[in-house]
Amino acid sequence: MRMPLDISQGSHHEHPVYHDRNFYTGLDGIIVLGGDGTLLSVARRVDDLEIPILGINLGQLGFLSEVERQDMYPCFDKLVKGEYRIEERMMLEAQVIREGQVLHISRALNDVVVNKGPLARIITLDAYIDGQYFSTFRGDGLIIATPTGSTAYSLSAGGPIVSPEVEMILLTPICAHTLYSRPLIISPSQQITIVLKPRFDEVAVTVDGQQGFRLKAGDEVVVSRSACRTRLVKVRGRHFFEVIRDKLTVSD
User: Fold this and answer.
1) DSSP label of 58
2) DSSP codes joined into one string, 169-188
């Protein structure tokens, strides 16, 4: 069983041991040492290879990681014995289109976010679903999240928690400047197109909070379910709602 240790240090200091993507081909699995940011980075790096990933939490929250530092050796024993299961998570694909040309394509396990820059004022975004106009959002931006990403930035912006067993796409406005703007859940087979209105130039699209692309007025961000899926190794038998209690509940 070939399972490399990926010792990337998260989204701000990424120095993976294996830079050659061809190295990952044919692996039985990858053990990731780090926090959520490290796991997200690795998931995108091998997004189309269907390699199972086991996360060992060396960070703070570690919501995506299966194993805490103190439990990793017993979990390794279970891994070797084959006492584990694979949980598949849907991903998103985002395209940036300018004047009919695709300039950028990326995939996300958590979310795709269109938001303003540090000095920009309120921005205006038109949203279309399957080519049909849905709404105009005014505020700091818009989060398009997977069920996995529902516990990340979307949750902080007031979005619901969604079980990863549910396939859907979640739209959550960021600091909306209207009273009626609420999170929206749509089918995973539907496509979202976000159009940046004129006179708003200091805006970017970010993927999993790690990759960014600067937008110009009139640009389109087209987001849909990706054909790729992230495969997470589960060895502890914990249910999603147990993780919610452990990670997101403030203790007395």
Assistant:
1) -
2) EEEEEES-SSSS---EEE-T
Q: Does 54 lie in the same domain as 150?
A: no
Q: Which residue type occupies 157?
A: A
Domain interval for residue 156: 90-227
3-class DSSP state of 99: coil
Q: Given this model, what pLDDT does residue 2 score?
A: 54
Q: Which residues pair with 143 in a beta bridge?
A: 113, 172
Q: Average pLDDT over the chain, rounded to whole?
A: 87
User: Rounded to whole angstroms, how far apart are CA atoms 66 and 64?
Assistant: 6
Q: Which residues are catalytic?
A: 36
**128 plus 222 within the same structural domain:** yes
Each residue of 204-231: pLDDT tens digit?
Answer: 999 999 999 999 999 999 999 999 999 9
User: What gap in Å lies between CA 99 and CA 232, rounded to an integer?
Assistant: 38
Query: In this structure, are strands 52-57 and 220-234 parallel, antiparallel, or unpaired?
Result: parallel
Q: Which residues face 67 on adjacent strands?
A: 56
Q: Which residues contact 74 (CB under 8 A, 6 or more apart)?
A: none
pLDDT above 60 (res 13): no
Measured from the Cβ of residue 227, the count of other Cβ atoms closer than 10 Å reads 10
Distance CA 37, CA 64 (A): 9
This prediction has a pTM of 0.88
